[in-house]
Structure formats: structure tokens, C-alpha cells
Amino acid sequence: MAEESRTVGQSSTEGCVDQLQFLRDKLQKFQSKIMGDFEQRLSCMIEDVMQDVRQQELRAQEFRQFDTSRGRANHASATWHNRQQQAFATAAENDVRDCPNGRVHAQNGTTPKQEQQQQQQQRQDRTQRRQLPDKVFVARESYLTALLQVEHMRTIYHIFSIILVMFLLNVIFYDYFVEGRINLGLGTFRTGLKRLHWVLGAWLLEHVFVLALYYAFQGWALVRAKLQSHKSLQRFWSHSCLILYISAQFVFGYVSTSLCLKFQLPFISACVLLLESTRLLMKMHAYVRHNAARVLQGKQKTDDDGELKEARPYLPPLRCYVYFLFAPTLIYRDTYPRTKQIRWKFALARLMEVVAIAFFYASIHERHIREYFGQFGKEPLGPSQLIVKIFGMMLPSAVILLCGFYMILHSWLNFTAELLRFGDRMFYKDWWTSHTYDGYYRNWNVVVHDWLYEYVYRDLYTYVFKGSKVIASLLVFMISALVHEQVLGFGLQLFFPVMFMFFGVLGVALVFLMRSAPKTLGNICVWFTLIIGNGTMISLYSMEYYAKRNCDLRYERWTDYITPAMWRCYH
């Protein structure tokens, strides 16, 4: 009996030991997992802190050529931020956020009228708290200009410069030894810049229209001030001028697009006219939108008889408007940060970069785009040939994307900014580090993004959709996609809305799909989709353009104009 009880005791003890061992193993695995996650998070946090420290060290020494009379702390904090929240004052006695249901009880001595005033003040405070930040201009260099002050980044710049030189030498030797002449892409310039004198004439006439808008706006503001005592007549005058202004904007855009079709402008000339027309439209709207708010909020002054009357509205002088027309920004201000002098060597270097990349583009067109798609519509085409053509353009399309960014957003805008001594050079941000498409769209082209944010998104958010950020953002995406498609469509003279689908549909979908992506994986996905999407888009537009030229197509019904030419060629 004793032996049996001893056996049972040993078995129960062994069972407890096994359970404790099992529990210890589980706790050890749990502890190791917790410690692993903690170490991973801690390493990520340390890496972020070290990256911030390195960026802070870079910021402390990247703006030597500008005046540093202001405080270093304020200057460093505003280096890479171009917006600040609007300041507003809220009286302490009117702040009723801690009261139940936002009300002040009557037993505290508040009358119903005072309570109603307090509720109105509370609503105004909530509205003020929802105000979006304003664009601010600060004297600063572009990201790449700042980064190229670091020796390692400057070495990478030298490497890419040598690669570009070697590519151009390859083109020169190929043209000389194979074709017997040196072309350097001049054929592309000759065909692409045909009828450029018509573009120049239209550009000058557009500036006459833009200057006429300045005096028309002055006339509206002065007549409105004189009609202060006649409210109904003042509203009628303002509404009539608003209708005329909107109509003039539509006519301005219609004329530029119709000239591309009437004069049969080649792609480069058409893009110059369309992009300049779009830029002037955005400039005009920025000036009118900024100064119309001033006029509508005009201050009143008291005359000698003690009566209130409307003060003469402030209208900026013509020199401010003319400087804004040529300044590399789309946001109107009366004054901008200015540099002390023009760095002619810096400006000449940027101009030479623009010329070099232009020749590089011409060579890519002749050696890749025309080589792959020049006979499209005449040659047989199957799935294998189509895949080879599209993927053969992936690398050249990636080079086109990067060189286009560098040529326009860095070299050209810095060149014009240097000539005009324009101080704020933040035309883009570090979009190449973006791990979401939110960050990519915000940082890729800050000049256009600021205009869309300041004059489209804010007005839609404040006055149309009343605080709905999602709907306002989607409408901004649609407007931007339509304008991009309009430039490409009329530049190539075809209806083929691939840009609209890629930008306005797939791009918007990627914004929501990639918001929760990890940084490293997200950045890889952004670059992968950019290269794939850009290569596919350039290939499709090239196929459509050459199919329309090479195929003998008839346009008898309206559907023939919207059906892709590449589809009609092979079906």
C-alpha cells in the first residue's frame, strides 16, 4: 500500500515537474519573442534618432550663402517645412470646452443672450481650429544642392556625370562610324521644334492677356469700393466680373489647345505652348485668388463726419505682379525672400545641365523609342513581341523619369531662381525616400502641389465640402490627372487617356493601399511601381502615336476618334 502511494506521489510530482517545465519553456519563448520585438523596435528607434542627428548636422551647414542674421533655431526648424498653422486668439473667458455639452449654466450669472454669444464664439473657435496651414517662404536651397555639399553625394554626382558623358560619346562614335555623320539627336530637335515661331507669337499674346488681367482686377476692386453704399449693385458688379473672369480662363485654355491642332504643332512645340499656358493660368488664378480675399475683407475707416466708409483697397504694384509671373513659384506673395547676388557660375552650371539632358533625351528618342516603336502598325505584332518592346523600354523610361525631374525641377527652376535672386529653392523634397504614395505626391513637385493645396484643396475643404478631406483630395487628384492628360493628349494629338487612368485611378488606389506599408518595403514598392508604370505608359503612348502615323485609318464615326489606333491597326 505504501509502495503504491509512493508511486502515485512520484508520478504526480513528475507531472507537476513536466507542467512546470512546459510552463517555463512557454515563458522563455514568450520572453525571447518579447525581447526580440523590443530589440527590433529599439534598433529602429535608434536608427531614426541617428538619421535625425545626421540630418540636423547637414542642416547646420548647408545654407552658407544666405543671410543668417535670424536665429539659428528658427532657421533650422523652418528649413524643410513650407507651411505653418494660422495663429488665432481665443479669449479665456469665452473658452467653454470644459463645460457640460459646451454650455455655461445660468446660475453662473450668464444671460441667454450672453450664452448664445458664447456658443457662437465656440463655433468660431472650432472653425479656427480646423483652419489649414499657410504656405511660408524661407530662404533655402534645394535638396540636391544641399546634399551635393557633402563629399560622398558630390562623388555620386560626378559618377553620373561621367556616365552621361560616356553615353553621349557612344552616340557620337556610333553616328560617325556606322551612319557616317554625327547627329547627336539634332534630327529630333529639328522635327520637334518646328513652327516654334508660332509658339513664341502665341506666348507673347498670352502675356498681353495676362497683363490686361492685372488692370481688369484693379478696375473691379476700385469700382467695388465706390459701390460700398449700394450693396445690391456691388454684388451684381462682383458676380458679373466673376462670370467674366471664369469665362476668360476657359477661353484662354481653349485657345492654347486649339492652336496645337490648328498649326499641327509637333510634340515638343505643343508641350511648350501647353505647359506655358497652364503655368500662366495658374499664375493668374493665384494672383486673383490671393488679392480678391484682401479686397473682400477690406478695412473701413472713419471720415471727418464720424461715418464709416470703405477704405481704398490695397492693390499690389505692377512690379510685384510682373516679378511673380516669372518667379519659379505658383503661390502669389507681394514679396519673397531674395538672395544678395547672382551666382553666375551656379546659374551657368544649371543651364548646361538642361542642355546636356535635352541632348540626352533626343538620343534616347532616336536610339530607343523610335527604334522600338517606329514601325509599329506596319510590322506583325504578337504577345511575345509586345512584352519584349514594353520591357525593353523599362530602363530608358526610368532614365527619362529621373532626368526629367532633375532637368525641370532642379536645374531649370534653380537657373531661373538664380537669375531672379529668388531665395526659396524648395521646388521638391526628398521624394526618393517616400514609402507611401502620399509622401511621393507631396514631395515630387512642391511647386504644383503647393498651388493645388493653396487654391484648390483649401477652398474645396473650407467652402464646398465643409471639412471633408477625402472628397477634397480625390477631386484634386482628378483635376491634376485631367490637366496632365490634356497636355499629353493635345501634345501628341490623340485621345488615349492612359495618364488619367494611371494617375487618377491607379495612383489614387495606391495612396490608400500603401498607407500602412513598412518603410523599407514601402519604398521598394514605390520605386517598383514607378518604374513599371512609367515604362508601360511611355510604351503605350509611343505605340499609339506611331500606330496613328503608320496605319491608314478612316475616321467616319465619332467612335473612330476615341478607339485606340493601335487596336484598330491590328484588329
UniProtKB/TrEMBL annotation:
Spans annotated as Disordered: 98-130
Coiled coil ranges: none
A GO term from the CC aspect: endoplasmic reticulum membrane
Keywords: Acyltransferase, Endoplasmic reticulum, Membrane, Transferase, Transmembrane, Transmembrane helix
Name of this protein: O-acyltransferase
Localization in the cell: Endoplasmic reticulum membrane
Topology in membrane: Multi-pass membrane protein
Family, per entry: Belongs to the membrane-bound acyltransferase family. Sterol o-acyltransferase subfamily.
Active site annotation, chain numbering: 484
Transmembrane segments: 156-176, 196-216, 236-257, 347-365, 386-409, 460-482, 494-514, 520-541
Lineage: Eukaryota, Metazoa, Ecdysozoa, Arthropoda, Hexapoda
Keyword Amino-acid biosynthesis in record: no
Biological processes per GO annotation: cholesterol metabolic process
One Gene Ontology molecular-function label: O-acyltransferase activity
InterPro entries according to UniProt: MBOAT_fam, Oat_ACAT_DAG_ARE
